[in-house]
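Page 37, continued from 36.
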């Protein structure tokens, strides 16, 4: 039985300030599946990235682990917990890309980039619109009991100003956000609060043109 429930693609995207949608816990996959994925969230093999970009580039700090690249190469999936291996295989198998294309009224993405991210205390992601070669970004969250005041929230922006927040997605367990890349698709991740706030964990799926 598939882990991802295709019924989530029957939702209609928001059109302001650009095309995007958020799913509630239980919509993308059952809560018990989300809980099992959170319990088995991979902990090893991450690269620490600290990028403070100038000249309008993206500024961010997190831990990143690539699971599949746009060239079709994948990491050693045999080293992943069994449920995570199934999920990556399902995402890269074809049906997921076709479902997203129907939902967003886009061409099917020729390739995917799939990776895991961990945001520790003080980590953030500054305002940006993603690379030109991306068709979409889908972020799935695995944080039981996460609170808005802990930060780490995805903020949908009306423009490049970090204060122009149009909507906020709290990264609670099983929630997700799907963003269509455009010149106006500004978004950011607010700074994760200091201890004793736990790490913020997520799965990132990018459709590559």
């Amino acid at each position: 039985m598939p882990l991802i429930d295709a019924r989530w693609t029957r939702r209609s995207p928001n059109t302001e300030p650009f095309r995007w949608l958020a799913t509630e816990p239980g919509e993308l996959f059952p809560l018990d599946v989300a809980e099992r994925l959170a319990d088995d969230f991979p902990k090893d093999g991450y690269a620490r990235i600290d990028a403070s970009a100038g000249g309008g580039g993206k500024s961010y700090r997190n831990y990143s682990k690539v699971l599949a690249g746009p060239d079709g190469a994948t990491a050693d999936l045999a080293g992943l917990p069994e449920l995570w291996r199934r999920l990556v295989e399902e995402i890269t198998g074809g049906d997921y890309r076709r479902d997203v294309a129907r939902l967003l009224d886009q061409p099917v993405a020729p390739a995917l980039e799939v990776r895991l991210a961990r945001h520790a205390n003080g980590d953030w992601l500054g305002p940006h619109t993603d690379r030109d070669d991306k068709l979409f970004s889908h972020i799935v969250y695995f944080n039981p009991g996460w609170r808005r005041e802990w930060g780490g929230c995805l903020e949908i922006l009306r423009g490049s100003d970090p204060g122009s927040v149009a909507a906020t997605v709290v990264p609670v367990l099983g929630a997700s956000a799907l963003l269509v890349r455009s010149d106006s698709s500004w978004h950011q991740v607010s700074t994760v609060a200091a201890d004793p706030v736990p790490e913020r964990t997520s799965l990132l799926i990018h459709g590559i043109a």
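The first strand starts at residue 20 and ends at 23. Flag for discussion at group meeting. The domain at 6-208 is CATH 2.60.120.620 (Jelly Rolls).
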